[in-house]
Amino acid sequence: MPRLLLVASSLFLITAACQPQNDARTIIDQAIAAHGGDAYQNKRISFDFRQFHLVLEQQNGRFRYERSYRDSAGVAIHEVLTNDSFIRTRNNQAQPLDTAQIGKYSRAVNSVAYFVLLPHKLSDPAVLADYAGQSQIDGQAYHKVRVRFRAEGGGNDYQDTFFYWFNQQTHTMDYLAYSEGGPRFRKAINPQTIGGIRFQDYINYKGDEKDTTSVGTYDQRYQARQLPELSRIEQKNIQVTPLANQ
């Protein structure tokens, strides 16, 4: 073999060996397409979650998340989180909030919105994703992806670490795990497509509260039946309507 061809061939093999077996971003993009793709854009999504009613709007990079409920005293609470602000009212009267309260309430609203809008939320610029290997769960083959967040644009919980398991055949996001706020493993159930968007409920499994570093192995612990069921995450009365173009 000529020397130049030999060198080129060697460089190709070295480059190929250094490349990840699968690209995390491609896997995420395939999952977003499988769950609705562009159907997420310019939509108003409303649903009930436990005692809360939520309305999620996304349009041209802007978002508006609303949560309404009555507290234990029967007071009507309405909360609105946008790209720029958080507002909370009690019986239609604006409630003064300090920084800690704004963080607490806005995280509560954003957390529900985040999980309902998965995997679409993994397209956010703050997401840092890397491939974490292949896995077998309940007889199905999965790609495992680890997700962290940049400090800028990653929100108050940018230090959280998530793992997602994407079905290699259907590209759907069937399992996820996270470490902060109590380690959890979630299994998607009851998928339904409304307005072109795939929505899923979840069985929520509890991990070891003393060990928040091993959530990436929760697929193995789930298979070994070592994770007790904690709760069910269910969205009811889901409605999807288009937003007027602005």
- Cα distance, first to last residue? 62 Å
- CATH class designation: Mainly Beta
| Domains, number | 1
Reported by name, the CATH topology is: outer membrane lipoprotein receptor (LolB), chain A
Give average pLDDT, whole number: 88
Protein name: Deoxyribose-phosphate aldolase
InterPro entries: DUF6503
Describe this structure in words.
The protein has a single domain, classed as outer membrane lipoprotein receptor (LolB), chain A (Clam). Mean pLDDT is 88; it is low at 3-21. The chain has 246 residues and is of the alpha+beta class. It is globular. 24% of the residues are buried. Strand 4 and strand 5 (86-90) form a beta hairpin. It has 4 helices and 14 strands. The strands form 2 sheets. The protein has a 7-stranded antiparallel β-sheet, covered by helices on one side. Strands 7-8-9-10-11-12-13 form a 7-stranded antiparallel β-sheet. The longest helix is centred in the middle third of the chain and has 18 residues, at 99-116.
Can you tag this structure with a few keywords?
246 residues; outer membrane lipoprotein receptor (LolB), chain A; 7-stranded antiparallel sheet; globular; DUF6503
Short description:
The chain has helices spanning 3-18, 24-35, 99-116, 218-223, and strands spanning 43-49, 52-59, 62-70, 76-82, 86-90, 93-94, 127-137, 140-149, 162-167, 173-178, 184-194, 197-206, 229-233, 236-242.
